[in-house]
């Protein structure tokens, strides 16, 4: 009953990303178009260990840095005391259902991402 395995942090980041997309037009657009968005890069800086029975809070931010991929930043906190446990990121390209990578995000999606980022939603 010690510290959470490091792989759990990536799962928590994924849940944050999923929740963010489910609650935005962006996720619906990606789904309707039949796109997938596989991870091409991911990282985590561990600050403190999550321990057994910790309740964690994930904050996920969509960044508007590129016209070629989607980038998310994540912060993971222990609810009690709001202690920062980890900071991470993930980058995702878009692919078609057939696996063809899109080298540029569709203009409609770029506009949606820009608007979303301007609103500062997490």
Total domain units: 1
Strand content: 25-35%
Instruction: Determine the CATH topology.
Output: Thiol Ester Dehydrase, Chain A
**CATH homologous superfamily title:** Hotdog Thioesterase
Order of helices and strands: HHEEEEEEH
Helical amount: 25-40%
Compute the CA-based radius of gyration.
15 Å
How would you classify the helix and strand content by structural class?
alpha+beta
CATH 2nd-level architecture: Roll
CATH class: Alpha Beta
Give the overall silhouette: elongated
Describe this structure as you would to a colleague.
GO terms for molecular function: hydrolase activity. This protein has 122 residues and is an alpha+beta fold. The protein has a single domain, classed as Thiol Ester Dehydrase, Chain A, CATH 3.10.129. Helices cover 32% and strands 32% of the residues. The chain has three helices and six strands, in the order H-H-E-E-E-E-E-E-H. Helix 1 packs across helix 2. The longest helix is centred in the N-terminal third of the chain and has 17 residues, at 6-22. The radius of gyration is 15 Å and the shape is elongated. The relative contact order is 0.23.
Explain the layout of strands and helices.
Blueprint: H1 6-22, H2 25-33, E1 39-46, E2 56-63, E3 70-78, E4 83-92, E5 94-95, E6 101-102, H3 107-119
Antiparallel strand pairs: 1-4, 2-3, 3-4, 5-6
Summarize the structure.
This is Thioesterase superfamily protein. This protein is an alpha+beta fold and 122 residues long.
For this entry, give a set of tags.
about 120 residues, alpha+beta, Thiol Ester Dehydrase, Chain A, 3 helices, 6 strands, elongated, hydrolase activity, Thioesterase superfamily protein
